[in-house]
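Aim 2 progress update. The chain analyzed this quarter is reproduced below.
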Amino acid sequence: MTTLSSSSTATSKSHVAYEWIKEAITSGRYAPGYRLVLAPIATELGISVVPVREAIRLLEAEGFVTFERNVGARVALIDEAEYVDAMEALAVIEGFATSLAVPGLGADDLAAARAVNDEMRQCLIHFDPLRFTELNHRFHALLFDGCPNPEVLDVVRRGWGRLSRLRSSTFTFVPGRSHESVAEHENILVLIESGADALEIELAVRRHRLATLDAFRAHRGSRS
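Predicted structure tokens:
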């Protein structure tokens, strides 16, 4: 348990809670979409839920937190427009990078990708969006890392880096998308294993990425 120091006790408890939660958000410990439950945070800080509630209200006013009816407080998506732009760009470039990488993929590479996807399937039982996101990145990297064009590969990697602080939000806000994602991964692997045309594989990866974006947009639209 984290306890408040003697110097902190001189400061209002709501301010201490505010600083603690804000640091957890900005450091990435509380990822976009993370649900902020009052009681565990209060226990962690050794205070009552009242100052935690006040701190969350302050963070909501500053845009760090959003509040949804029947759901409660969640860490806000950092930049919705940035997320959409990055996903659209990655859909195009990652699909192309994967199609270029396919000729160099061996049986061991595909077996490793399928093992990761199987682990993602197991992750669905007790869903952990952060773990699922980590596995999702690993799956795709196994397919595109062999891209022989270094310029294309660099753009893909930078795209994933840009999404690293945003990507988990989709699976957190729209957990049902994770089931579809696993099925689409399997379809991509089947296409590669069956010797499908490079363009067909490229478009399958692109559709997969855009389907995640569509799920995000549908969720945001349903809250309008």
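Residues 198-222 form the longest helix (25 residues). The CA atoms of residues 37 and 73 lie 7 Å apart. These observations will guide the mutagenesis experiments scheduled for the next reporting period.
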